[in-house]
UniProtKB/TrEMBL annotation:
It catalyses: GTP + H2O = GDP + phosphate + H(+). Part of the signal recognition particle protein translocation system, which is composed of SRP and FtsY. Pfam families: SRP54, SRP54_N. It is found in: Cell membrane; Cytoplasm. Keywords: Cell membrane, Cytoplasm, GTP-binding, Hydrolase, Membrane, Nucleotide-binding, Receptor. Its EC number is 3.6.5.4. The gene is ftsY. Belongs to the GTP-binding SRP family. FtsY subfamily. Residues 376-389 form the SRP54-type proteins GTP-binding domain. This is Signal recognition particle receptor FtsY. Residues 49-66 have a biased composition (Basic and acidic residues). GTP binds at residues 211-218, 293-297, 355-358. SUPFAM superfamilies: P-loop containing nucleoside triphosphate hydrolases. Its main location: membrane.
Length: 404
């Protein structure tokens, strides 16, 4: 009986414990969740300044303004900014060209270096003791090789044969004198070689420069401006070569060096219009001479040659041209004569300028081109220098040919 009671008591205790556990678990589920704890907020790192490392600034000792050392006077000196330096435009200096009188004489040494072969060759042949037919044929060959031309060569040889026969004995000095006289006669001492720049009625004198490509027209026009300025003339330059991009700039540079005004137009523009404006400005400025530089053109191009004729006609609406100078490259020899014929048909050539006569050119081209066109050589170019353009003087030229 006691066992039964004990078992009942144990069962009651067990059941009560189990019941308490069930009630406790239910209450735990119904309790509201506790409020969340406030998170720890960490301040973002300070933004670094220029030159600082990207890290959180450290605590530093701060000083008051009374503790900061200031420079004398209590305030920092104000920085005064200097105004920017403005570069002054470089004003081209006007050059004073050397006088033209006797310029070819001064350039004789340069001319003789390339031309002495003709004179020395002739003197050597004429100095032979016996002048037979073979020697005279050699003299003819020497003259033809020097681009003198067939007809002038035959005339010169004939006169030399007659004078040598009359002379009899031939000393070196006598031969030099004889050859000098005959060459001067062949070159033509009586031809009018003055560049016409003084019209009889009114100023300015008008000069047009023509020629094929590469003969040096623009350079010759610039050098001719120097020649005229050296003689006391005022000059206006007309850059009518509108096809070559650098032609107008080149001519303007030549003009600025001697104080000559340059009239130019747009690249690829009408050259006749530029030439017309140049003459117009020359009149308005009261200039003595207007030099018109035309574009180089092949003598075989009919359209370009017709355009050259148009430039001439347009200019003559102001006044007649006083000079039409044909620029020839002396090194082309007899080929230059073909060019000369065509240009003479399109525009009335009044004078010839031979350039590059200090190179491989033969001196005889002077004679040949004058015979071909019937107009004189008025200027010759003897180098690349600014003052290497000289008025042609027959006596000085022949003296350079035969040497001293």
């Amino acid at each position: 009986m006691e066992i039964v009671i004990l078992a009942v008591v144990i069962a009651v205790v067990v059941i009560g414990a189990l019941g308490g556990l069930v009630i406790g678990s239910r209450r735990k589920k119904q309790l509201p969740p506790p409020p969340p704890a406030a998170p720890d907020i960490t301040a973002p790192p300070a933004e670094p300044h220029v030159g600082d490392e990207a890290e959180t600034p450290r605590d530093e000792t701060r000083r008051t303004i009374e503790e900061v050392d200031l420079p004398d006077g209590g305030t920092a000196p104000a920085t005064v900014e200097e105004p920017p330096v403005v570069e002054e435009l470089e004003i081209p200096q006007i050059e004073v060209p050397e006088p033209t009188a006797g310029r070819l004489v001064r350039l004789r040494a340069r001319l003789s270096r390339s031309q002495n072969a003709l004179g020395k060759g002739l003197l050597t042949l004429l100095s032979r003791e016996h002048l037979d037919e073979d020697t005279w044929e050699e003299i003819e060959d020497t003259l033809l090789t020097a681009d003198v031309g067939v007809q002038p060569t035959q005339e010169l040889v004939e006169r030399l044969r007659e004078r040598v026969k009359v002379l009899g004995t031939r000393t070196p000095d006598e031969l030099r004198t004889l050859l000098r006289e005959e060459l001067i006669t062949l070159v033509g001492p009586d031809m009018d070689r003055e560049v016409k720049t003084e019209p009889p009625n009114s100023k300015p004198g008008i000069v047009m420069v023509v020629g094929v490509n590469g003969t040096g027209k623009t350079t010759t026009t610039g050098k001719l401006a120097r020649v005229l300025v050296a003689d006391g003339r005022s000059v206006v330059l007309g850059a009518a070569d509108t096809f070559r991009a650098a032609a107008a700039d080149q001519l303007q540079t030549w003009g600025e060096r001697v104080g000559a005004h340059t009239v130019r137009g747009p690249e690829g523009g009408d050259p006749a219009s530029v030439a017309f404006d140049a003459v117009k400005e020359g009149k308005e400025l009261g200039s003595d001479v207007v030099l018109i530089d035309t574009a180089g053109r092949l003598h075989t191009k009919t359209g370009l040659m017709d355009e050259l004729g148009k430039v001439k006609r347009v200019v003559e609406k102001h006044a007649p041209l006083d000079e039409v100078l044909l620029v020839l490259d002396a090194t082309t020899g007899q080929n230059g004569l073909i060019q000369a014929r065509v240009f003479a048909e399109v525009v009335d050539i009044t004078g010839i300028v031979l350039t590059k006569l200090d190179g491989t050119a033969k001196g005889g081209i002077v004679v040949a081109v004058q015979r071909e066109l019937g107009v004189p050589v008025k200027l010759i170019g003897l180098g690349e220098g600014a003052d290497d353009l000289a008025p042609f003087e027959p006596a000085a030229f022949v003296d350079a040919l035969i040497g001293e």
